[in-house]
Design goal:
Oligomer: single chain
Strand content: 25-35%
Helix content: 25-40%
CATH architecture of the largest domain: 3-Layer(aba) Sandwich
Number of helices: 9
Strand order of the largest sheet: 3-2-1-4-5-6
Structural class: alpha/beta
CATH superfamily of the largest domain: NAD(P)-binding Rossmann-like Domain
Length: about 250
């Protein structure tokens, strides 16, 4: 049984709490203490109002479901405390200096940083790019303009560039581009479109390399309790937790 601490007690935290199987939530922390206490009642864990007390509790793995800022603020402290970490807000790792610091800290402490697949599929096979050449890696994301806080009465391109540039302009909405870049070992190109006619987030991944080429298209449904959260993203964390101690490893 894996013992976890939840950093962030919003919608994804609730989904995790309601699906405890081979893991148990022992500790919870949120910058809004009431959220941690509410989720503690559901999960059976203990809510902490102070991060240092939270990270000092007896558990093995922190599941971050808070924000990019939370990862950057607490990431190294989590690893230095002797705990592995699951990073949902992978946009934090678009900062190369921070990524280097976090990975070197994990290497020194012999800890793991886990990145769930999030709102897309196919990261396992995209990792071949770390060995074989990738000539094209493009993420085309289409969203309803309201989800980005924009107004538009037609489909239009609102960003075109590299992943690290996109995450700066739209930090809450394009974690996918950073996850793709980390998996492939090269930075993804990103096109971000808005379309008032779409009611789901659409992610299209185009990849070409020495292996051949592929196109992956994902149309995400919203989380049942929070329209701003991809249900697939939440499920990807549950899948990671379910398989983290499985001796049978499927995929790369």
């Amino acid at each position: 049984m894996i013992r976890i601490g939840l950093l962030g007690c919003g919608n994804i935290g609730h989904i995790i709490a309601k699906n405890q199987e081979n893991f148990e939530i022992l500790a919870l922390y949120d910058r809004i203490p009431e959220k941690a206490r509410e989720l503690a009642d559901i999960s059976g864990g203990t809510a902490y109002e102070d991060f240092n007390t939270f990270i000092g509790a007896d558990f093995d793995l922190v599941v971050e479901a808070a924000s990019v800022l939370a990862v950057r603020h607490y990431g190294t402290a989590i690893i230095n405390s002797g705990k592995d970490i699951v990073v949902m807000s992978v946009g934090a790792l678009s900062d190369k200096a921070f990524l280097s610091l976090l990975t070197e800290t994990a290497r020194r402490e012999r800890k793991k940083i886990y990145i769930p697949s999030g709102a897309v599929m196919g990261l396992d096979n995209i990792k071949v790019g770390q060995i074989s050449g990738i000539h094209k890696l493009l993420l085309k994301t289409t969203k309803n303009p309201e989800s980005l806080g924009l107004a538009s009465d037609e489909k239009r391109l609102v960003f075109s560039g590299k992943a690290h540039q996109c995450i700066k302009e739209f930090p809450k909405n394009v974690n996918v581009s950073v996850a793709l870049s980390l998996a492939a070992g090269c930075e993804a190109d990103v096109e971000l479109w808005v379309d008032p006619e779409v009611d789901r987030n659409i992610h299209e991944i185009y990849i070409e390399g020495d292996f051949g080429d592929a196109c992956i298209r994902v149309r995400n449904l919203q989380s049942p309790d929070n329209p701003s959260t991809s249900y697939l993203a939440a499920l990807s964390i549950l899948t990671l937790l379910r398989n983290i101690d499985n001796p049978l490893v499927v995929g790369t």
